[in-house]
Amino acid sequence: MTTIDALILCGGLGSRMGGIDKGWLEVEGIPLVERCIASLKRQSLQPARILISANRTLPRYESLGLPILTDLRAGNPGPLAGIEAGLHAASSDWLFALPCDCPDIPDDMIEQLAKVDTTARVRHAAYHPLPCLLHQSTLNTLTAALDCGRYRVRAWQHECEAATVPMTVDWCNLNAPEDIARTLDYAVAQAANASSLSDNT
């Protein structure tokens, strides 16, 4: 596999979060988009470039100093439209698409998807259609699906005969306010556990 670009998907409507621009939702004081950037920079297989898909608050995203991509079609049809724009803009053969509500993925996720023994042009972690790693050659089928009004990620991946890759570590999807609450509760519990272990040594 050659170089890989990464795309952070921040272009959604955030309907389950009350319509907010989810990329700027803060967890422990850090916006999700910035947590995603940090997560990508920790990857054992580093992306050549990091791109951001966004359709609102563009000046704020531009302040991050990364290329900002808007959807190539109107109506906010969903993450596939963001991926379509990402494939058009990517300079690498492969694109890793990361939703902004998955800010703390395993540090070896891209490597696991890239090195799995498969010829599949789309690879995603078990139980999660996104994040995913996809090849430039999937652009035509993705565009055709969008042109026909087929916007579901899972359905399109099924058409592409995507490979499902087991992950050694799970992570959180922050789709709704209660997901953020659970994440914070987990972080507090982990910190308390680490403190307790330290006190006992």
Based on the model shown, name its key terms.
201 residues, seven-stranded mixed sheet
Would you give an account of this structure?
By secondary structure, the protein is an alpha/beta fold. 36% of the residues lie in helices and 16% in strands. The protein has 7 helices and 9 strands; from the N terminus they run E-E-E-H-E-H-E-H-E-H-E-E-H-H-E-H. It has helices at 32-41, 58-62, 79-89, 109-115, 139-147, 153-159, 177-199; strands spanning 4-9, 26-27, 30-31, 50-53, 68-69, 94-99, 122-125, 132-135, 163-165. The strands form 2 sheets. It has a 7-stranded mixed β-sheet with strand order 5-4-1-6-8-7-9, with helices on both faces. Helix 3 packs antiparallel against helix 5 (139-147). The longest helix has 23 residues, at 177-199. The chain starts with a strand and ends with a helix.
